[in-house]
Amino acid sequence: MTLRSSCSRSLTRAIITFVVARTLPGLPFLLLLLLGSAVPLGAAPAAPGFTVRLLGSQRAFDSRELIGKKVLVVRFQASWCKPCAKESAALTRLAERYRARGVEVLALHVQDTATDVQRFVREHKVAYPVALDPRLTVANRFGFKGTPYTVVVDLRGEVVAQIHGESVVRRLPRLLDGLVANPPQDGIARAKPALERR
């Protein structure tokens, strides 16, 4: 397709839209209403893709590489966050328990320094990947409001849970069991848990 034909088609569409809108003033609204209702009401929002460098490594972690392969649990935490430290051992156990079932846990330390995060990892024997997000670049794209904050992204790359505060490690198993028990196969969508926001 040439630039000329592309511009010509765009101009033609614009003229037709203008004529229809002037002739039948309610039609564009009706079309938008009908088209909008074709989207499933329970559709989860797409998770923003991101790439971070893992702490103590040159390896990059690209969330987009997990779509269709693994469920992603992103834990936004900080070395200075007392609830994060308190739940760290339980999060490690959860990560180990679900790793073989296709769940990847990633901790993004927000507003933190590499030195403090390395100390946190060492002291709490963290066994899941950790990266830094000192300026909240990734966190803000996920609706971050404070630590701890956990986001679950399903196999389709959709956000299915946003959990603020403590006790997430007690709530995650039920959610993850539902996501990994019946993963979609051959493009057939399965029922998924409703978007959880707390």
Summarize the structure in short:
The protein has two domains: 3-36; 51-197, Glutaredoxin (3-Layer(aba) Sandwich).
Could you walk me through the main structural features you see in this protein, from its secondary elements to its overall organization?
- With 198 residues, this protein is α/β, with parallel strands linked by helices.
- It folds into two domains: 3-36; 51-197, Glutaredoxin.
- It is 39% helix and 19% strand.
- The protein contains six helices and eight strands, in the order H-H-E-E-E-H-E-H-E-H-E-E-H-E.
- It has helices at 3-23, 27-36, 82-99, 114-123, 137-141, 168-181; strands at residues 51-53, 60-62, 71-77, 103-110, 130-133, 149-153, 159-164, 196-197.
- Strands 5-4-3-6-7-8 form a six-stranded mixed β-sheet. Strands 1-2 form a two-stranded antiparallel sheet.
- Strand 7, helix 6 (168-181) and strand 8 form a beta-alpha-beta unit.
- Helix 3 runs parallel beside helix 6.
- The radius of gyration is 22 Å and the shape is globular.
